Amino acid sequence: MELNTVKMVARVEDGVGWMVFNNPERHNAMSIEMNLAIPTILGAFNEDPAVRVVVMTGAGEKAFVSGADISEFEAHRSSPETIAEFDRIGERAGEAYRDLQKPLIAMIRGFCMGGGLMTAMRADIRIASEDSQFGIPAARLGLGYGFGGVKGLVDLVGPAYAREILFTGARFAAPDALRMGLVNRVLPVEELEPTVREVASTIAANAPLTVNTLRVAVNETMRDPAKRDLAKVERMVEECFASEDYKEGRRAFMEKRKAQFRGR
């Protein structure tokens, strides 16, 4: 995969696509060039049948993503025109996350702040180390925060915790993040990557059509009831029952062996 930046790394290992935010000298702060690379990476993973699960993480030991690269704000967020272009780039990255048809895991160590927390929230599963820190410091910086990001936070942790996170702009330790529901698990540092690899490999070994159907169904539960596409979910369920993988799953169960799913 050719990327126009060294600040993003993409690789595929054993059915898992890894997307690494590679800007450790700035605590993996998200630059424009990093955001521009995200659609390329996730689009390639989407099209690659060898990729069953995607993991995103930050390079180094200090941060997942510490937020937007504030050093770029003067050049890229200082006028209505530059702000609009900055937002368009972010929207394209957001569309790439929404278009991803495979489970996404966030492996979090260190700072997960601002836009970094919003990035982590795009994952289906978030697993963090004990030394991680979380927060959205917009109120400390005078930034405007869009409705989409606020709603995503409220959907995840509820309005009371969302208010605390947003109004204080404070940093929260990993145990607090677990209590609030920001993350699924908190682990010792040495257990973080092995656990993420185990979870990813477990998902990758399951039937891809079923996993994706379940992912879509869960996402539909979080939409306004009037906007839910239940017909899409039903079609996907029917496709699971009509698939070769369903036959393979039945045979493997009867033969007491591990199923070999192919995603069709």
Count of separate structural domains: 2
State the CATH architecture of the largest domain: Alpha-Beta Complex
Instruction: Indicate the CATH class of the largest domain.
Output: Alpha Beta
Task: Give the neighbour order of strands across the main sheet.
Answer: 1-2-3-5-7-10
Number of helices: 12
How far is the first residue's CA from the last residue's CA? 25 Å
Topology order in helix (H) and strand (E) letters: EEHEEHHEEHEEHHHEHEHHHH
Arithmetic mean of pLDDT = 92
**Fraction in helix:** 40-55%
Label the structural class.
Answer: alpha/beta
The percentage of residues in β strands lies in 15-25%
Poorly predicted runs are none
Chain-wise SSE layout:
Elements: E1 8-13, E2 16-21, H1 32-47, E3 53-58, E4 63-65, H2 73-76, H3 80-99, E5 104-108, E6 111-113, H4 115-121, E7 125-129, E8 133-135, H5 138-141, H6 147-157, H7 159-168, E9 172-173, H8 174-180, E10 185-187, H9 189-205, H10 208-221, H11 230-241, H12 244-254
Parallel strand pairs: 2-3, 3-5, 4-6, 5-7, 6-8, 7-10
Antiparallel strand pairs: 1-2, 8-9
